[in-house]
Amino acid sequence: MGSNGSNGHSKSLVFVQLTGGNDALNTVLPINDEHYYNFRPTVQFQPEDLLELDGNIGLNPNMTAMKRLWDEGKVAIINGIGYPNPNRSHFRSMDIWHTAEPTKVATEGWLGQLTRDLDPQGENVLTAVNFGRGLPRALSAQGVPVASVGDLATYGLYPDIRDEAIRNQTLDMFSQMYGGAGKDAVKEFIQQTGRGVMQGADILGAAPRNYSSSVEYANTSIGQSLKDAAQVMFADIGTRIYYTGQGSYDTHAGEIPMHAKLIGEMSNAVGDFWDDVEEHGYENDTVVVIFSEFGRRIKDNGSGTDHGSGGVAFVIGGGVKGGLYGDFPSLAPEDQLEGDMHYNNDFRSAYTDLLEDWMGVDAKPITNGTFEKLEFIRK
Q1: How high is the pLDDT of residue 161?
Q2: Which tops the pLDDT comparison, 260 or 161?
Q3: Which of 4, 43, 70, 341 has its CB surrounded by the most CB atoms within 10 Å?
Q4: Within 10 Å of residue 345's Cβ, how many Cβ atoms?
Q5: What is the torsion angle, in degrees rounded to the nearest 10, for the CA atoms of residue 103, residue 108, residue 110 and residue 111?
């Protein structure tokens, strides 16, 4: 579909990272599968409580907003998403998703590389924006500026150092923290990054002032992050990649109430964001991707579930062909992977669809290989 959308807006990707290992099996559930109830005597939902997608699959009952978008044909659900030889460490598995490199530790994030492809000269410090603290590995790449926004309403107030001498002194203080031969290079990098952040802060600071919407976002962390993303999107300042996250989905204990709260807040926030996107005419230029580093064990531990594999991802948009992609992993004992669901869709296949058919760039250098597309983007 190329990189420009139907309304003259550039095509955008919005990522929601469910940190901690979202329980795929209690997010998209098999209806009337005896194995599910045998292996999950306590951490379970009854068939009549599920939001039915087809005769065999249902959504978690707390995902009513997501079900509404599904009914409108805007949601692709990728079952059994993962990679070969799954790693059950949060840090390592998330790193694999962030770099598209399962076999070795890579230096650059896949979205950082995409940002560089979209803006090779680094002319726009706001091509990619993270809504949250720190910088996700996915956005990290050599020479690629990325703004990290904790709260858009106050962003730009803190680094508002007008005086050039004070600004340089501040940056110099940072560089003093690094000794040795690399000090000058670090200083130069920090100065460039610092200037970029300040430049970006000035631009981002204007976004909330020009925003109006009839959508009332819930006062949740993920809701406010997606509201911030919407404000930046509608300001048309050249941002193409929006990244945020929600956690923690590490539900080893007390899973039913904890997971219900998290997945419900996420679903509602995405529903509100999508209503906002439609109200402002960006629905055919925006794709939302929801993912987690891994799924959880098939068998519950009496109160929660432990680290597993075989996850689920959602891709949402006006340009998305809604439906189920990939077979739902079998829960039969003989089909399990050491007590987990088998992956049957490589996440790099989904990345290939997003990179080539949505953003219009060559996927192979970014995904570190050739992967068969799932074909969820409308042509």
Answers
A1: 43
A2: 260
A3: 341
A4: 24
A5: 160
Q: Is 199 exposed, middle or buried (0-12, 13-18, 19+ CB in 10 A)?
A: middle
Instruction: Give, in order, the Cα–Cα distances in Å from 87 to each of 21, 138, 326, 369.
Output: 12, 18, 21, 20
Q: Pinpoint the alpha helices (H) of 12-109.
A: 34-39, 64-71, 90-99
Give the start-to-end residue ranges of the domains of the chain. 12-152+212-367, 154-206
pTM score, whole prediction:
0.90
Domain 12-152+212-367, what fold? Alkaline Phosphatase, subunit A (3.40.720)
Rounded to whole angstroms, the Cα distance separating 376 from 356 reads: 12
Cβ atoms of 267 and 64 closer than 8 Å: yes
Cβ-based neighbour number of residue 185 at 10 Å: 11
Residues 24/296, Cβ–Cβ less than 8 Å:
yes
Cα-Cα end-to-end distance for the chain: 6
Distance CA 14, CA 227 (A): 12
Sign of CA dihedral 226, 30, 75, 370: positive
Q: What is the pLDDT of residue 145?
A: 85
For the chain, give the percent of residues with pLDDT over 90.
73
Q: For residue 175, what pLDDT is reported?
A: 53
Residues with Cβ within 8 Å of 154's Cβ and at least 6 positions away in sequence, in order, are: none
